[in-house]
Amino acid sequence: MASLVKGKILGVIGDEDTVVGFLLGGVGELNKARKPNYLIVDKNTAVTEIEEAFKTMCAREDIAIILINQHIAEMIRYAVDQHTASIPAVLEIPSKEAPYDPSKDSILNRARGLFNPEDFR
């Protein structure tokens, strides 16, 4: 019998609407240490707590992609910019209150530095 390889999961750091939306979509999970793969950020959430959750998710073997609201990524920009590994990939997403600004996306800016516009002509 073939061994089953468990798939990787999403991590989500965001405002309540964003995280609840993903949880309703079925992405919520607790690992063996009973740690969730999500963090709901509100006005009472300390920046240190957000940074700790981000670094913890980056270190987890079972998380392949971390989705983070861009306005929250701005709060821990130094930590997001320090993450250079391809897995987990960090994707900055908009929220209802804060639209997406491509100029602030560290991954997009890093990708822009890899390619010359002339390469696509």
UniProtKB/TrEMBL annotation:
Keywords: Hydrogen ion transport, Ion transport, Transport. SUPFAM superfamilies: AtpF-like. Pfam families: ATP-synt_F. One of its GO terms (molecular function) is proton-transporting ATPase activity, rotational mechanism. InterPro entries: ATPase_V1-cplx_f_g_su, ATPase_V1-cplx_fsu_euk, ATPase_V1_fsu_sf. One of its GO terms (cellular component) is proton-transporting V-type ATPase, V1 domain. Subunit of the V1 complex of vacuolar(H+)-ATPase (V-ATPase), a multisubunit enzyme composed of a peripheral complex (V1) that hydrolyzes ATP and a membrane integral complex (V0) that translocates protons. V-ATPase is responsible for acidifying and maintaining the pH of intracellular compartments. NCBIfam families: V_ATP_synt_F. V-ATPase is a heteromultimeric enzyme made up of two complexes: the ATP-hydrolytic V1 complex and the proton translocation V0 complex. Belongs to the V-ATPase F subunit family. This is V-type proton ATPase subunit F. It comes from Mesorhabditis belari.
